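debug: dumping io for the single-chain case to check the tokenizer round-trip. Nothing else runs in this session.
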Amino acid sequence: MTVLRTSLRNFFAHKGRMALSAVAVLLSVAFVCGTLVFTDTMNTTFDKLFAVTASDVTVAPKTAKNSETPQNGVPETLPAATLDRIRQAEGVKSVEGGVSSPNVTVVDRHNKNMGSSNGAPTIAGNWTSGSLRSMEITSGHAPHGPGEMLVDADTADKHDLKLGDELRTIAQTGDLTARVVGVATFKVTNPGASVVYFDTATAQRGLLGTTGRFTQISVTAASGVSDEQLKQNVTRTLAAAAGAKAGAYKIQTAKENADENRKDVGSFMDVIKYAMLGFAGIAFLVGIFLIINTFSMLVAQRTREIGLMRAIGSSRKQVNRSVLVEALLLGFVGSVLGVGAGVGIAIGLMKLMGAAGMDLSTKDLTIKATTPVAGLVLGVVVTVLAAYLPARRAGKISPMAALRDAGTPADGRAGWVRAAIGLVLTGAGTASLYAAATADKASDGSAVLGLGVVLTLIGFVVIGPLLAGGVVRVISAVLLRAFGPVGRMAERNALRNPRRTGATGAALMIGLALVACLSVVGSSMVASATDQLDKSVGADFIVQGNQRIVPQAEQAMRQSPGLAHVTRYKDLDATLTSPDGKADTGGVTAADPSYADDLRRPVTAGTLKDAYAPGAMSVGSDYADKHHVHVGDTLTVAFKGGKTARLKVAAITSDDTAIDQGARYLSIATMEKYVPADRVPPNMIMFAKAEDGKETQAYAALKKSLEQYPQYQVRDQTDYKQELKDQIGQLLNMVYGLLALAIIVAVLGVVNTLALSVVERTREIGLMRAIGLSRRQLRRMIRMESVVIALFGALLGLGLGMGWGATAQKLLALEGLGVLDIPWPTIIAVFVGSAFVGLFAALVPAFRAGRMNVLNAIATD
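debug: decoded output
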């Protein structure tokens, strides 16, 4: 109880100094809990949607996958006769055929895309009685003829659609124009998909290109029949039906169907979840330095008090335990507040996703019991572990040393041991980075790179106090000497406790190292891709979108004036068997012969144009080396949904590129001999070359020709480079935003260190003021000290990050991205910004120091 009372007294006596450390714990725990609540809420939203839309038993083609569209762009189907067979099964109450396609685009009469802006699909289907499980018609009526359609309420609200508006649905099988005659509202939250419905016959003709077929069949169980029993009955009936193959169907209960959909969404959600938790972990790591500094300085300030406690009988264990109990209190308070703040962050993320087009209702807000427990345990454990070293140091203070105010013991040997360990770790990390940079394969080098990053980071953290002396002197010589005695005092203050300066700078170093690394990687990717586009791409225009190119858009492109040629580009699922008998399922690329001019791929053997001859193909150099394939060899190519061909290797292309790396080319004419017309995939991308001297006119004409198809973008090479730059820039900005949490925690660390340092130097400040140091000079001294510490951390972080980035680029070079580009404007901006961070962090400590009463400060014990 004595230890607890002492800890409570000390905790509340220094509550102001503990506040910033508590905020660091709060922010880190809040981000973890916010991530868990947000992802759990998204999972709940999808689970409810999947549960309510699934019928008791669903029958679909065996090869159908809920999250994929076949390579030909048209959903797999079942004949209508299957419904009659299923009706004969025991325990069937009703059977209904469904038509659904996620490979459509819906536009208004101004060719504005009615789809979601967040990447969610636009789904078209037939309105059935089963649709009423998840939706209800709130305006108008269900579609009854070829010119009528129904839309979901969310899409109608977002695009201000009204009854009578005419919309065009663009599908692989053609365009379908209809008037909106009804609006249906989801009974559960719609995460953002746009949904349109037609009557069954219209949906079959418009989405499937035929009548009498369905993409899935919904079966409802009779009273008292379980889903599992119904599935068994339907399976037996279909297997026994004349002409039916037992394995021709995918038959699922409602639970199995929902589980499959959940698995498809879950993989995407896991990426978001673990990425965000990774950034939260970085913030926790930075917070550790803040907590270590806080307790180290509090222990130093209570040296005499600890000595008295030891003198009157307190053991080392009790002193140690007293500090750890304070840490426990700090971690608990910060974590409790963090759990509450995490719920707020989750709601904020939901609102942000809503603005981006993904609707998430707070009614589905999911807070699992494990979330606050995880937040509390993580926050408390991290805080106590971070305080262990200061607590151990406090326990080692002898009563006599403390009573004569000798402070915590300065163990020179420990300092040398620390420096030796830091140098060893840094050396090992540097060696790992070198090994990664010289690796022959990116897959082998990536693991070594990760090891090098971890080792150099730990090494720099451990060796920070040793580096502080030299680096701070260099920074001071450049920035502080011009300020005379005040500048020199700021330098000495920063150097007074290298361990403290090193830990404070290390907190900032971690976040900035990641910023620098990602900046180098992102800039190098853009520069490499731009370089390859300049060297390799001969086409003037590139047409692509988030869906494969429908035939009607291809036809519009071909009719555009001013084009010398148009090139089709298709990817196909196929299995290749090399002469050594080994199979490879990597697929092939079918293109027009003009693609050899549109993309100038260097070859290591043969001639690429010959690969587009009948019965010929090319392979990549990596595949050729792995399977000992040479020009003139024959490969067996089994096309999915088609025949098996034996094709002669006419060229081997170099895989020292990022564009079409590993592609195996053959002509579309060759592919059409072995793949049925209804299985030929639509173009994934198309290229065009303008007639000489007509580039500008052809560009404008091509854009006008494809105005009716807004899902596709027409880009010249300049547009394509800018698009690539923008995409990588957006990704980096998102990452920087997440790293901002770690940087905020690091700034709190600088503020806390300075605030405690001011308290620690109260008498010294009073003496300086007594001998003539003005308030302005005092505040300037503290601000300069803060700037030096911030720039120390920035210099280490940026240097370390650029080293990581340069090494990562060497691995990217193995994948064809061979240009190293250091984004100096970004690096310089971050370095200068760090100085302003230091100034900002010093505002409150400097203001408080300036307000000190001189006599009271001198009299401080």
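debug: round-trip ok. The mean pLDDT is 85.
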